[in-house]
Each structure stands twice: as C-alpha cells, then as structure tokens.
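Still learning. Any example?
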Amino acid sequence: MAKEKQAVVLLSGGIDSSTTLALARREGFAVYALSFDYGQRHRCELEAARRVAHGLGAAKHIEAVIDLRTFGGSALTTDIEVPKGRSAELMSADIPITYVPARNTIFLSYALAWCEVLEAQDIFIGVNAVDYSGYPDCRPEFLAAFERMASLATRAGVTGTAAFRIHAPLLHMSKAQIIRAGVDAGVDFSWTHSCYDPSPEGLACGACDSCIIRRRGFFSAGIPDPTPYLGIPYGD
C-alpha cells in the first residue's frame, strides 16, 4: 500500500491559512499543521487554529513557541498602536507597522525542518499577493527564493532524497475568491480569527486592516461573515 503523501501546512487560524489547509486535504495530503505562539498580541488566533486543525482533520497539529517580542519592530509584538480605519489606498501605500520582521522566513524554516523529520517534501502557506497589505514576505519572488534555498540548506536537498515544494494556492486570489474556495472545501469560517487587536474577551475590533479586509471579502463574496465584531451589529 502506497504511503499517503504528507505536507506541512502553516496554520494561523485565519481565513487564508484555513482555506489553504482545506485545499491541501482536498489534494489528498495528510496535513501536519504548524502554528506559532510567537508573542503576538492576538494570541486568541491559536485557539482558532486548534479549531481549524481539528475540524478539518489534520493528522497532527503542533504549536511552536518562539518569542519575536525579543526583537519587536511590529505592532503585533510590541505596544505600538495597531492602525485602525484605514482605506485600501493607505493599506497598500507602504509596508505597515503590523509587518513582523522576517516572520514568514522564520515560519517556513520551521516547516522545512519538520518536513525533513517527516520525510515530506511539500509545504503549504496561505500567502496572498492581492490582498496582502504590502507584506514583502507574501510575494511570489520570496516563495521561489525560499524553495531554491531549501534544496541547499537541508540534508534531504543536498543528498537528492527530496525536492521541496512551496505551495501557495491562494497567491493570486482576491479575498472574496479565497472565502468562496474555503466554503467549497469545507471550511467553517466561524472557527477562524483575523483581528490584530481583539478585545480581552477575544472579540474582533472590526477596524484594523485585517478586520477591514475580512469584512470586505465576505461582503464581496456574498457570504455572511460569522465574526462577532466589537460594537458592530452582525452582518454590517
């Protein structure tokens, strides 16, 4: 009996990573979900990741603990104020303060290490180059460069026993297209969390860049957003 193909899937618990995990499952992969407790102010996303991993049938789910607060440099890892109420033009005008320095490079490196241990060759990441808020580590050029690096930096790559592949199935989708794809692949978006600055009770603020992109995506997709937002009536 042929061994089921395995893939490591980076899972934050948001719309994009949850849809990516569902698509990897639909492609026939046994998915090994990898989340990070990295000192983010929105740690409630880890609870969302647990719900998604369980609900979509991940073979295993690991939460790696690292502390990117050591370096700071982001509104997600320090006391810098999270921007609120910004227009789409402002969001895309510059790299926002919610960018966490080298985050995806670090996360992909962990995923690569787990791939070697599993003897797997496939990594899935939910980056998006359309509604990506200007993050440099969500671009196709970055993913291609990391894939090349993986063959040089690992025992499996150097010995030729593995050819690592970085899958980014959402790369050129709009948020509305991602949401529709997630629904079609079996994602229950009530499991997910997107807000960068939730209340102490875990309610989404409704006004940070991530909340605005999420709300706009559901509206454009014609699908109700199941998220309870702080001070915003359901469906608005």
